[in-house]
Amino acid sequence: MSDSSTALAMDTSQVGPPCFLVCAHCSTRLAHTSQIVSRAYRGHAGKAALFTTVKNVVLDPPSILLMDSGAYTIQEFICKTCEAYLGWKFYRAHDGPERWKEGHFVLELDLVREENGSDAQEGDRLQSPLDRIDEEANPPTQKRSPSEPPTPPPKGARQGRRSVLVTSKRSHIPRRLELDEYDDAGPFWKPR
């Protein structure tokens, strides 16, 4: 087994039972922890994770984002119920080796929490995914209290400032697209 496949296997391993990730503001179900591809991401609000699918979100129009790993066309998304900013979707990767990310979602872990898989009641809520990932890396010294509200995204992440929208004048992009079910359309880019 190669080093890269070993690293991927370690990224997808879980601690504890699989759970749903829900919006921290309104408890709308967004994703399942079994769909985590990688936890090695950072978002506007802190730690983030890459997921294969996320539902119950509304996608913004595509925009260009420059990262350390290359240039990407992304779509930021918000919760369908409360319209809280949650993360972004890789719409297109402009570098060949990064095209595997197309169609995947980056969910900011400070803006969601885990909930038990059954019809969860208030008492069934588990610790936040950020706390669980921190415990894997370092033993806890001081935990954030469960009653403490999650930190809001930094200014500019969702307060009206937009990334540059690059489109042709002929193409019409819908203002927002709702994802109620899993998107099985595949990646945007197709090889020639």
UniProtKB/TrEMBL annotation:
- Pfam families with a match to the protein in the record: Yippee-Mis18
Give start and end of each Yippee domain.
Answer: 19-116
| UniProt GO molecular function | metal ion binding
InterPro entries for the chain: Yippee, Yippee/Mis18/Cereblon, Yippee_fam
What keyword terms does UniProt attach to this protein?
Answer: Metal-binding, Zinc
Enumerate the residue ranges of region (Disordered). 116-192
Q: Would the keyword Metal-binding be found if you checked this record's keyword annotation? A: yes
> What does the sequence similarity comment in the record state about its family?
Belongs to the yippee family.
- Annotated protein name in UniProt: Yippee domain-containing protein
